[in-house]
């Protein structure tokens, strides 16, 4: 456990050093700019924190988009499209079904139930 924390601290220090070097090379401290060196270092740390926060937000947004119900359905459809059905007539006669066909059957039953529930609720009302 201790080694993991040490590795994490070392990695964070390396990231900070990289950001500081990168920021320092792009925006070197200039005594004529009107800020002290301490203020300049605060700007570097603030910019580093902003970059980390932006990256964290992008990661969260990406996860949210990829885990939405629409994307999950589209991912499954892509699997079906690229893998395709591997059933042959011989396997169907012996009652063996490929995983894609099993999945499609479940998807079909699920969507049919959803449509029934939705239609049942709307049929009682008037348009």
Q: Number of helical segments?
A: 5
Query: How much of the sequence is in beta strands?
Result: under 5%
- Percent range of helical residues: over 70%
Structurally, the number of domains stands at 2
Mean pLDDT: 77
Name the overall outline.
elongated
Compact summary:
This protein has 127 residues and is an all-alpha fold. It is 79% helix and 0% strand. The model has no long low-confidence stretch (mean pLDDT 77).
What is the fold's blueprint, element by element?
Layout: H1 2-26, H2 37-66, H3 69-83, H4 89-93, H5 99-123
Keywords:
2 domains, 5 helices, 127 residues, mainly alpha, 79% helix
What does this structure look like?
It is a single chain. The chain is an all-alpha fold. It has helices at 2-26, 37-66, 69-83, 89-93, 99-123. It has two domains: 2-66; 69-123, no CATH class. Helix content is 79%, strand content 0%.
């Amino acid at each position: 456990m201790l080694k993991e924390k040490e590795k994490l601290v070392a990695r964070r220090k390396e990231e900070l050093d990289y950001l500081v070097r990168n920021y320092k090379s792009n925006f070197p401290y200039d005594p004529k700019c009107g800020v002290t060196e301490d203020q300049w270092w605060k700007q570097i740390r603030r910019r580093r924190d902003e970059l980390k926060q932006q990256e964290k937000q992008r990661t969260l947004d990406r996860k949210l988009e990829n885990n939405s119900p629409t994307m999950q359905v589209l991912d499954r459809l892509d699997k079906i499209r690229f893998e395709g059905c591997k059933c042959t007539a011989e396997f169907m006669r012996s009652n063996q079904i490929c995983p894609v066909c099993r999945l499609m059957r479940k998807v079909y039953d699920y969507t049919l139930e959803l449509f029934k529930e939705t239609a049942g609720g709307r049929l009682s009302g008037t348009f």
